[in-house]
Design goal:
With 92 residues, the chain is of the alpha+beta class. It contains three helices and four strands.
Length: 92
């Protein structure tokens, strides 16, 4: 999906469905605690693996639909398959 987001090509529909499936898999919430500073603690009523997959999938949804896709870039090093968020002018 990162390649699709950086090149403007459509992603594999099966990958999009897999991310969406995991994003909706676990019911979870964040609770607030306050010691020296406010902290958010994630909780879920689902088993651990679906909860973690759901959190990762939801972050992917936010990455590909929020303002970050404009900053998402492929590494230009020969043979590199990594992507990065360009948040500094000199980052390549």
């Amino acid at each position: 999906m990162a390649t699709a987001a950086t090149t403007g090509t459509p992603p594999n529909p099966d990958v999009v469905e897999a991310v969406s499936k995991h994003a909706r898999a676990a019911f979870h919430w964040r609770e607030l605690s306050w010691d020296a500073a406010p902290l958010a603690h994630p909780h879920s009523s689902a088993p651990t693996v679906p909860t973690v997959l759901s959190a990762i999938a939801q972050q992917a949804v936010e990455l590909f639909t929020g303002p970050a896709p404009v900053c998402l870039h492929a590494c230009h090093a020969p043979g590199c398959v990594l992507f990065f968020i360009k948040d500094r002018h000199r980052r390549e």
